[in-house]
Design brief:
Elements: H1 4-19, H2 22-51, H3 61-110, H4 113-118, H5 121-163, H6 165-212, H7 214-219, H8 223-249, H9 251-275, H10 281-322, E1 344-351, E2 360-367, E3 372-376, H11 383-390, E4 398-403, E5 406-407, H12 413-418, E6 420-423, E7 432-433, H13 434-438, H14 447-456, H15 460-464, E8 473-474, H16 483-497, E9 501-505, H17 513-527, E10 531-535, E11 547-552, E12 555-560, H18 562-568, H19 571-580
Parallel strand pairs: 3-10, 3-11, 6-9, 9-10
Antiparallel strand pairs: 1-2, 1-4, 4-5, 7-8, 11-12
Helix pairs in contact: 1-10, 2-3, 2-5, 2-10, 3-5, 3-10, 5-6, 5-10, 6-8, 6-9, 6-10, 9-10, 14-16
């Protein structure tokens, strides 16, 4: 749980975001002072007007009308200043929120995959959306009411002491009670709002995961289990919210009770002073008005403090994301791969996702330019992990991976990944047209090139049958496309780019056998002269590979071509015969 020191640190970091808008903040403070000054001037005018009402037939109408004109002018000026101040505060608030959201989203692009894999995506979404919205509410209320509230208290005390020192001392003596009550409540609301924000993030993560995998939930009849899990999370969120709201809701009644004491004290004490002739009735009405205005900001500030506790708790979560250590930048002077022969070598590579749990150990490989390297083995042996290392989605723990003799840690990530074409078992599409999805890796491609790539991937026929053909808009889930059709679009995307190196991870797993044979022929033509890494469970698809690596428990246990490995009668032969001889 965050400490008071951490809370001050969070507040300091928020002030850094406000520094960019310091001129507008200064204008807002100036307008707040004008608003408070005019508001406090009105009771003086009102008191003077009361003193002009001396009795029946003894009313100074010329003086009274002059005062009423001044009151009208002061009210209009106050309204104008308040309007401009609110505009300034809204501008500052929503631009600060925009800056924070942009920084958070940019940081998401910079974070290593290790961080994203270790955190629920729904929780990250909740930080960027819900927590920032709560922060905006707190900031807006703080700007709108905190400045004016504090200035009203200070200004009212000044006028009270100027009007009558004994009555002002009565007000000052009761004030600490309100401060102590507000401090007691604020110290508890912060931790409650922090728990509420965390529980809300967990709920968002569960909802995002459930909605995205609804087919899986229904296929395994997990509806009841998911509902129970959601109900449990909802119960915890309810408890946290009720506690936070309970402590925040008692703030206003407590401060109102203190305010009533202040008002009563001024009224009773001022009445005795007025009876003895110490002040006029008009001045007493002015003092009562000040007492009311003095206590009113305490109600507003107590509400602001509650909102600020929630805002700070949410700010801590979003700032934690923004300050997370980003992915290590490219090495100084890193090489940009422009033209590569595609020679890839791995030397004594070791890697693990979890420290202490080795996945790949002492892995070595030498893939010559233009070779087709197939990687096979049981589930969990490290095949996909090897792909992650080749693409530098993760960096090796020890050893090195080289492309054309250069360690990939000395190559810019962008140029390395551009040099690879990937088709994975899991498809990735975005909201847009079919044409935009194919063109993703080569935005400058012409419509003719897009269609040619689709034909090469055998996707043209089904695209042509869509309502708007290549201009059909699909969602990130693919809309009405089958898994095989989505995979064909991903294949067409690579066919369009034709990079010097290829990674095919179960690239035809969702495609029917007849289309797969055509795709294999297209792949064969595409792989000519290109270094290719092929991950496959269906061993019939890798018979023509130049080198087959057989992995087991993170190590290469066998290596050779199809015929050689079969003749050895080892682990590969067992895998092969288990598929084709039952």
């Amino acid at each position: 749980m965050e400490t008071g020191l951490d809370r001050k640190k969070t507040l300091g970091q928020m002030l850094l975001y406000l520094k960019k808008y310091r001129l507008l903040a200064g204008l807002s403070l100036m307008l707040a002072a004008v608003t408070v000054g005019l508001t406090l001037y009105v009771p003086i005018l009102t008191g003077n007007a009361v003193d002009l009402l001396l009795g029946k037939g003894r009313v100074d109408f010329p003086g009274l009308f002059a005062i009423l004109w001044k009151i009208g002018a002061a009210v209009c000026a106050t309204a104008a200043a308040q309007w401009v101040m609110d505009l300034s505060n809204s501008y500052i608030t929503y631009h600060v929120v925009k800056d924070i959201r942009e920084d958070a989203f940019h940081k998401l692009q910079q974070l290593p995959l290790r961080y994203l894999d270790a955190h629920a995506h729904g929780d990250l979404i909740s930080r960027v959306i819900a927590d920032v919205d709560a922060l905006a509410d707190g900031l807006l209320m703080g700007f709108t009411q905190l400045f004016t509230g504090v200035l009203t208290i200070i200004g009212t005390l000044f006028f009270l002491f100027a009007a009558n020192v004994p009555i002002a001392l009565v007000v000052v003596c009761v004030t600490p009670v309100s401060f102590l009550a507000a401090r007691f409540i604020a110290s508890r609301t912060y931790s409650m709002f922090q728990l509420q924000s965390r529980a809300r993030g967990e709920q968002t993560a569960l909802i995002e995961e459930t909605v995205g995998n609804q087919k899986l939930v229904k296929a395994f009849s997990r509806e009841d289990a998911v509902r129970e899990q959601f109900a449990e999370g909802n119960r915890r969120l309810e408890e946290c919210s009720l506690r936070a709201i309970f402590y925040s809701s008692i703030t206003n009644p407590v401060t109102r009770a203190v305010n009533s004491l202040v008002y009563a004290g001024v009224g009773v004490f001022g009445a005795f002073v007025a009876i003895r002739g110490g002040i006029s009735v008009g001045r007493l009405s002015c003092l009562l008005s000040y007492a009311n205005q003095y206590t009113k900001p305490f109600n507003e500030i107590s509400g602001v403090v509650t909102e600020l506790q929630n805002a700070l708790a949410c700010a801590a979560r979003i700032l934690e994301l923004i300050q997370e250590t980003p992915q290590a930048p490219d090495a100084p002077g890193a090489r940009v791969l422009e033209q590569t022969a595609g020679a890839v070598s791995l030397e004594q590579v070791s890697f693990s996702y979890v420290p202490g749990q080795r996945l790949i150990q002492g892995f070595s490989l030498d893939a010559k330019s233009g070779q087709r390297v197939a990687i096979v083995g049981p589930t969990g042996c490290g095949k996909t992990t090897l792909i992650n290392l080749l693409m530098r989605f993760y960096d090796v723990d020890s050893g090195s991976i080289r492309v054309d003799g250069t360690d990939i840690r000395q190559i810019t990530r962008g140029s390395l990944r551009t040099s690879y074409g990937m088709v994975l078992q899991e498809t990735w599409l975005r909201w847009g047209t079919i044409r935009d999805n194919i063109r993703m890796g080569k935005p400058e491609a012409t419509d003719a090139e897009v269609e040619q790539a689709a034909r090469a991937a055998h996707a043209h026929s089904f695209i042509r049958r869509l309502p708007q053909g290549y201009d059909t808009v699909i969602s990130e889930e693919g809309g009405g496309l089958s898994q095989g059709q989505k995979q064909l679009l991903c294949i067409a995307r690579v066919m369009l780019c034709l990079p010097p190196m290829l990674i095919l991870d179960e690239a035809t797993s969702s495609i029917d056998t007849r289309t797969e044979l055509k795709i294999q022929n297209a792949f064969a033509r595409m792989m000519e002269g290109r270094t290719s890494f092929i991950v496959a469970h269906r061993l019939s698809t890798i018979r023509e590979a130049d080198v087959i690596l057989v992995m087991r428990d993170g190590n290469i246990v066998e290596q050779g071509n199809h015929e050689t490995l079969l003749s050895q009668g080892g682990f590969y032969a067992q895998l092969y015969h288990s598929q084709f001889t039952g």
